[in-house]
Amino acid sequence: MELQPSERLDDLLTHELRIIQSREVFSFSMDAVLLAHFAGVPPSGRIVDLCTGNGVIPLLLTTRTRASIDAVEIQPRLADMARRSVEINGMGTRIRIVEGDLREKSRELGWGSYDAVTVNPPYMPPLTGDRNGNEHYAVARHEVHGTLEEIVENCARLVRTGGKVSMVHRPGRLVEILASMTRWKLEPKRLRFVHPHVGSEANMVLIEAVRDAKPSLRLLSPLIVYADKERYSQEIMEIYYGSKGGSADEQAKEL
User: What is the pLDDT of residue 123?
Assistant: First the structure.
């Protein structure tokens, strides 16, 4: 398969998977990798990934489950990149890329049809922060095509009773996230803060909720990204590279 101008084909960690990326559009980062590792997924059944971008989370989830995975992305260019990455990896029978607005696609996909939902949504409200001039980056970072409330609502509609919804977001919006989840009958069950270094404030939070469950929240131990200025912690190394770890160069670079 030919790559488009500006595109490159990257290895996806140690899973013998490859993914199409481009500097012109928003590439995946650590939050997507951590969510794919954290999310509670069934051994089989059906999963949907919302705000999928170039499809990194569905690809990573294929290493953890035999479930079929639908992946929704509103940006045509990113959806096309995700679709071609699925084809390159021979995952066409496992992953289906659905192009469109998740607010419109949720009824089409089927309310209550999924055993698990994953979502790495835009972190910033539409009129806050430095709005990037690159539209691909702006849509990935800001709630241009759906508010946090609308995203949580559609997660709740798509997942079955007893199914899990997993999200990565910023700690500054945690109260808003938890309130929205409980409003839509998604009961938060597991929560983990991600800290760049020991002693630093958290800059990410991983949340898992269960549809129509009873209240009972577990606050997991903090996940520390760096052991020192450049070297990943042992846990991050295992998430990225498996139990064998990686080379010193791999430890020092951002993926």
Answer: 82
| DSSP secondary structure string for all residues of the chain | -PPPTTEEEEE-TTSS-EEEEETTSPPP-HHHHHHHHHS---SSSEEEEES-TTTHHHHHHTTT---EEEEEES-HHHHHHHHHHHHHTT-TTTEEEEES-HHHHHHHH-TT-EEEEEE----B-TTSS---SSHHHHHHHB-TT--HHHHHHHHHHHEEEEEEEEEEE-GGGHHHHHHHHHHTTEEEEEEEEEESSTTSPP-EEEEEEEETPPP--EEPPPEE-BSSSSSBPHHHHHHHH-TT---HHHHHS--
Q: Which domains does the chain have, with CATH numbers?
A: 29-243 (3.40.50.150)
Residue 243: per-residue pLDDT: 64
Q: What is the reported pTM?
A: 0.88
Condensed to tens digits (0 to 9), the pLDDT of residues 128-175 reads 555 445 554 444 454 555 799 999 999 999 999 999 999 999 999 999
